[in-house]
Amino acid sequence: MNIARGEIGVREVGNNDGKRVREYLAYTGIKTPAPWCSSFLSWVFGEAGYSEPKTAWSPAMFPKERLVYPSQPSAALPGGASEAMVIGIYFSSLKRIGHVGLIERLKGELIYSIEGNTNTNGSREGHGVFRKVRHLKTVSKVADWIN
């Protein structure tokens, strides 16, 4: 989590570009400009010494064997989630998970996350790394890449 926290405030230069954004995207083999929320999380896990996840495709962050929510009712949020789990936000316009973030902490039904390629409005095409507060009802899936 300290690695992700250290990136809060990183901003794009132009559209989906900039020195740090290029580093996140390069980690997953993608060239700029490109959406980078999944590449950012992959880079964070890589910096922490994990070889996975390593993807620029947000739906790939949620393989069945990593799902905590909603596939495992006994681990239903908020009690079954912990920091550093990946949240997925579903976009009906895309008909898929279109944005991801990293759980920093939980408080009741609120998820405090750190997300790349977002903004203060919670866009999936934002301009930086920010802390976000999301209600559990807005989260489609949660994956555990550590345990």
Question: Would you mind describing this structure in some detail?
Answer:
The structure is a single chain. The chain has 147 residues and is an alpha+beta fold. The chain has one domain (2-143): endopeptidase fold (from Nostoc punctiforme) (Alpha-Beta Complex), CATH 3.90.1720. Helix content is 18%, strand content 28%. It contains three helices and six strands. A six-stranded antiparallel sheet has the order 1-6-2-3-4-5. Helix 2 (19-27) crosses helix 3. The two termini are 15 Å apart.
Topology of helices and strands:
Blueprint: H1 2-7, H2 19-27, H3 37-47, E1 67-69, E2 86-91, E3 96-107, E4 110-118, E5 128-135, E6 141-143
Helix pairs in contact: 2-3
Tags for this entry?
single chain; 147 residues; alpha+beta; endopeptidase fold (from Nostoc punctiforme); six-stranded antiparallel beta sheet; 6 strands
Overall CATH class: Alpha Beta
CATH topology: endopeptidase fold (from Nostoc punctiforme)
- Give the number of domains: 1
> Cα-atom Rg, whole angstroms?
14 Å
The helix content is 10-25%
Strand proportion: 25-35%
Q: Please tell me the overall pLDDT.
A: 90
Described by the principal axes of the CA atoms, the overall outline is: globular
The strands making up the biggest β-sheet line up spatially as 1-6-2-3-4-5
| CATH-defined architecture | Alpha-Beta Complex
Output the structural class: alpha+beta
In whole angstroms, the N-to-C terminal distance is 15 Å
Unreliable spans are: none
Q: Treating each run of at least 4 consecutive H or I residues as one helix, how many helices? A: 3
* Biggest sheet statistics: 6 strands, antiparallel
SSE string:
HHHEEEEEE
Number of strands: 6
